[in-house]
Design a protein that fits this description.
The structure is a single chain. The protein is mostly helical. It has 2 domains: 3-177 and 298-327, Rossmann fold (3-Layer(aba) Sandwich), CATH 3.40.50.620; 202-293, Tyrosyl-Transfer RNA Synthetase, CATH 1.10.240.10. The chain has 14 helices and 5 strands. The chain has helices at 16-29, 41-44, 51-68, 85-94, 99-103, 106-112, 121-135, 149-165, 212-221, 233-237, 240-253, 257-264, 269-295, 298-327, and strands spanning 3-8, 34-39, 76-79, 141-143, 175-177. Strand 1 (3-8), helix 1 and strand 2 (34-39) form a beta-alpha-beta unit. Helix 4 crosses helix 7 (121-135). The chain binds adenosine monophosphate (AMP) and tryptophan. Adenosine monophosphate binds next to helix 1. Residues 8-9, 17-18, 21-22, 144-145, 147-148, 183-185, 194-197 line the site of adenosine monophosphate.
């Protein structure tokens, strides 16, 4: 069977983009693939995380997987630092990837910003660790949001170069799975910026744990333009904020963007926003409530992570052993 690997960083509150772009798809893939879903704490510390909060954030992301419907009996759920092979394989990939490849990564450029010289080395080699996450399990498919596409291309390049340099056909060439009507959910304050856990403005995003009032308020305050909703997709695409809200509506209602637009074309934003808020509360509310329930019982969440780490390590171990042999490390 084909194998799925994906991950989310425990670096803040889970938001609607994480749900619609990633974890909702995790749930839908469970029956057709062997799935491994990771909470990538090694990735999170590429930007400093308060040690007092990191464990809590790790449980928070785990709770979001469970609340969205990932079944820990069927799929593997674990935190990255619990399986040492991720860091070990990442080192080998640091020696396979080329500096020129990493220099092209747009996420590094965005996150490092003007302070490039002061960014952590970890932030720079982050995509090598991501390739290691995936290939440590020889995963064939990786469900992610649109923003991770470039990192997955790099993963393919690393697999190819490793195979070529060592004269083997060892690693698979991984396929990205980017699907749904919300592969790139934008900020509610700025339709040209991605909705993100780390945006300083809480009004820019809908958190999965927001209550009904907060969800409705944030949607009501979402930036829009003064015109009624357009009649055609071409016109919609010229208006980033309107396009974003219609995309969110389509994804939540599980219909296509043209179908969603057909329902609201020509109407004013006020009415549409009310409808969108009701739908968001209906779909996100129960997930948030379940997350609250799960985080009240950290013992239960920790037990799932522990069992997941054991199952993940059992898959990773023989693969890492093969890799060490291919590279020529002495294993006395
Ligand atoms: P991160 O929060 O950066 O760890 O992202 C975890 C997963 O959620 C990745 O698959 C991302 O591509 C996806 N994701 C994060 N933000 C968004 C967004 N605004 N729209 C769609 N997908 C997203
Ligand atoms: N880089 C991803 C993000 O920030 C998270 C991630 C780390 C990941 N390792 C992964 C996603 C492996 C898919 C597969 O969104």
């Amino acid at each position: 069977m084909n194998r799925i690997f994906s991950g989310v960083q425990p670096s803040g509150a889970m938001q609607l983009g994480n749900y619609l772009g990633a974890i909702r798809n995790f749930v839908r893939l469970q029956d057709d693939y062997d799935c491994i879903y990771c909470v990538v704490d090694l990735h999170a510390i590429t930007l400093w995380q308060d040690p007092k909060l990191l464990a809590e954030q790790t449980r928070h992301v785990t709770a979001s997987y469970l609340a969205a419907g990932v079944d820990p009996k069927q799929s593997i759920i674990f935190n990255q630092s619990a399986v040492a092979g991720h860091a070990q394989l990442a080192w080998i990939f640091n020696c396979v990837a080329r500096i020129g490849w990493l220099n092209r990564m747009t996420q590094f450029k965005e996150k490092a910003g003007k302070h490039r010289e002061n960014a952590s080395v970890g932030l720079y080699v982050y995509p090598d660790l991501m390739a290691a996450d995936i290939l440590l399990y020889k995963a064939t498919h990786v469900p992610v949001g649109e923003d991770q596409k470039q990192h997955l291309e790099l993963t393919r390049d690393i697999a190819q170069k490793f195979n070529h340099d060592y004269g083997v056909e060892y690693f698979p060439i991984t396929e990205p799975l980017i699907f749904g009507e919300a592969t790139r959910v934008m900020s509610l304050r700025d339709g040209t910026k991605k909705m993100s856990k780390s945006d300083p403005s809480d009004y820019s995003r809908i958190n999965l744990t927001d209550d009904a009032d907060a969800i409705a308020l944030k949607i009501r305050k979402a930036r829009t333009d003064p015109h009624p909703l357009p009649e055609t997709i071409e016109d919609l695409e010229k208006r980033p904020e309107a396009n974003n809200l219609v995309g969110i509506y389509a994804a939540l209602a599980d219909i296509s963007r043209p179908e969603a637009l057909a329902k609201v074309a020509g109407t004013q934003f006020a009415g549409f926003k009310q409808e969108l808020a009701d739908l968001a509360v209906e779909k996100v509310g129960p997930i948030g409530a379940e997350m609250q329930r799960l985080t009240a019982d950290p013992g239960h969440v920790d037990a799932i992570l522990k069992e997941g780490a054991e199952r993940a390590a059992a898959i990773a171990e023989p693969i890492l052993k093969d890799v060490m042999e291919i590279v020529g490390f002495l294993r006395p």
